[in-house]
């Protein structure tokens, strides 16, 4: 008879004895019954030569699945698929791969340093179902590890750690990156699980496809790689392991593409934080606590999200209509009424005590108007690196030409070089010109289209200057003639 059979038989004898005792217990006074049960348990433990450890899927009132449970699940999924007879299939990565794990009540045997370990996956179903529960179901799953008592130290110490480490290593290898976004505070219904919703993150942008000055690109790349390897350094200097980036520049210069490239480089998740959906500073803190390590927390268009900019500035500035971006202004006004997140709340989110929960995180703000931001928000230490994403220069164009047309040089490059120096055009607009619109369009016609667009942009810019000069002249005359003009 194997140890496994022995354990099963002994286990069932003990279980039967416990069952019989449960029937008899009701005939005893409560105190006496509890007393007998205590000694009975001790007796069972004395004769039962095994130790059993359970790992529950949810611990206490936590909404999140236990990290240990998930690590064991992954560890056993590599192990159990060979031995277990009943398996659960979990389809991942757009139905491209299947992860198998032990089905409920299935048992597998693992071996560690010559010692046998029995794993069972079990679930308990509550007698009374909750009328309303946040969990998808009320069944409580757990893994039970059983081994011989004489190996207790190895099981509790080395083996459990080995399983958790292996499980986490498998997670890193098979990790699917996610793009999270926060739902409106009023839709959380007190349930942590509804705070962030996510989709799989599969953005194709990389540092190779990102068009910008190669030296600047290399500097950012090194900065990111150094950060990701600096766990010990941050600990040594007493800083939490996080780094802030401010990406600024006109629309279409590659700020969002840069964030995607960063996530792809470091294999991080992205939390796209929509500040206007957050009710107040308390909710902001809850969201922060619920983000994982190895992630990028992004607040796009920070100047439009909240009135974070005007608090320390003159009121007069606020009263001016946002003529440049009326849609964003309207949105901003609408949202300002709903959210009570303040600048100090946001600063606390970035580098207050709460920000130290979790580690290995990037916090990125993007803006089209860096000059509008409160200096406190972007000072070094909060936003450690300020990166300007600007209009297309010749270096940027060369990366786009290589990516979009497979061209490293061409006779027309010299003309484009000269024209880019004279005209402001975003990489997004340049990329649009370089993209062939039909099968007949070859590289040269794309370059010619770009030259035409650059000529048009130059002419438009010239007309704007003439127009503004005319308006300026007119305004001076108006000011001379009237004392109650708007600017006064
Ligand atoms: N530097 C760049 N390198 C490569 N592609 C770029 C770059 N800038 C813009 N693009 C192209 O233009 C599109 C728009 O760029 P992106 O969304 O990154 O701009 P943005 O700076 O985030 O704009 P906004 O300020 O409006 O959010 C991208 O999908 C990409 O195809
Ligand atoms: Mg963007």
Structure description:
The protein folds into three domains: 49-174, no CATH class; 178-388, Rossmann fold (3-Layer(aba) Sandwich), CATH 3.40.50; 404-481. The termini are far apart. The chain is built from 17 helices and 13 strands. The protein has 488 residues and is an alpha/beta fold. The longest helix has 39 residues, at 443-481. The strands form three sheets. A seven-stranded mixed β-sheet has the order 8-7-10-11-12-9-13. The chain binds adenosine-5'-triphosphate and magnesium ion. Magnesium ion (MG) binds next to helix 7. This is AAA+ ATPase domain, ATPase, AAA-type, core, AAA-type ATPase domain-containing protein.
CATH homologous superfamily label of the largest domain:
P-loop containing nucleotide triphosphate hydrolases
Domain module count: 3
CATH topology title of the largest domain: Rossmann fold
What percentage of residues falls in helices of 4 or more residues?
A: 40-55%
Bound small-molecule species: adenosine-5'-triphosphate, magnesium ion
Largest sheet at a glance?
7 strands, mixed
Strand content: 15-25%
Number of helices: 17
Give the termini distance in whole angstroms.
99 Å
What Rg is obtained from the alpha carbons, in whole angstroms? 31 Å
Give the class from helix and strand content and strand pairing. Answer: alpha/beta
Q: Based on CA inertia axes, which overall geometry fits?
A: elongated
CATH class assignment of the largest domain: Alpha Beta
């Amino acid at each position: 008879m194997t140890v496994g059979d022995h354990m099963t038989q002994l286990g069932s004898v003990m279980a039967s004895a416990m069952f019989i005792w449960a029937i008899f217990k009701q005939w005893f006074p409560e105190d006496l019954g509890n007393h007998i049960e205590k000694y009975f348990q001790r007796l069972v433990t004395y004769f039962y030569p095994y130790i059993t450890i359970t790992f529950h899927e949810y611990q206490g009132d936590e909404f999140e699945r236990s990290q240990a449970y998930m690590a064991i699940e992954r560890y056993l999924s590599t192990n159990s698929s060979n031995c277990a007879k009943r398996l659960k299939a979990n389809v991942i990565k757009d139905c491209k791969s299947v992860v198998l794990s032990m089905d409920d009540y299935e048992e597998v045997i693992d071996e560690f340093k010559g010692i046998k370990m029995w794993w069972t996956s079990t679930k308990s179903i509550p007698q009374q179902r909750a009328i309303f529960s946040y969990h998808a179901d009320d069944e409580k799953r757990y893994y039970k590890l059983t081994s011989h008592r004489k190996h207790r130290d190895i099981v509790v110490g080395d083996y459990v750690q080995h399983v958790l480490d292996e499980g986490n290593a498998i997670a890193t290898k098979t990790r699917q990156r996610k793009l999270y976004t926060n739902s409106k505070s009023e839709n959380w219904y007190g349930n942590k699980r509804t705070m962030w919703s996510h989709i799989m993150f599969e953005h194709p942008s990389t540092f190779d496809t990102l068009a910008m000055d190669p030296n600047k690109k290399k500097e950012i790349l090194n900065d990111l790689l150094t950060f990701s390897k600096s766990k010990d350094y941050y600990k040594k200097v007493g800083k939490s392991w996080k780094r802030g980036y401010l990406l600024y520049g006109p629309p279409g210069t590659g700020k969002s593409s840069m964030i995607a490239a960063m996530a792809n480089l470091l294999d991080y998740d992205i939390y796209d934080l929509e500040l206007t959906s957050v009710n107040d500073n308390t909710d902001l803190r809850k969201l922060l606590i619920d983000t994982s390590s190895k992630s990028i927390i992004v607040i796009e268009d920070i100047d439009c999200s909240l009135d974070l900019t005007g608090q320390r500035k003159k009121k007069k500035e606020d009263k001016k209509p946002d003529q440049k971006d009326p849609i964003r202004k309207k949105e901003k006004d609408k949202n300002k009424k709903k959210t009570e997140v303040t600048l100090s709340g946001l600063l606390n989110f970035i580098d207050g005590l709460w920000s130290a929960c979790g580690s290995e995180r990037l916090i990125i703000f993007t803006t089209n108007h860096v000059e509008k931001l409160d200096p406190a928000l972007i000072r070094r230490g909060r936003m450690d690196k300020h990166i300007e994403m600007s209009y297309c220069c010749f270096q940027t164009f060369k990366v786009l030409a290589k990516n979009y047309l497979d061209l490293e040089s061409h006779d027309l490059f010299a003309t484009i070089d000269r024209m880019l120096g004279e005209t402001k055009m975003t990489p997004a607009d340049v990329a649009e010109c370089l993209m062939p619109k039909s099968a007949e369009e070859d590289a040269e016609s794309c370059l010619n289209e770009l030259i035409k667009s650059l000529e048009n942009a130059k002419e438009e810019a010239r007309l704007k200057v003439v127009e503004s000069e005319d308006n300026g002249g007119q305004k001076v005359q108006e000011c001379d003639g009237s004392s109650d003009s708007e600017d006064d």
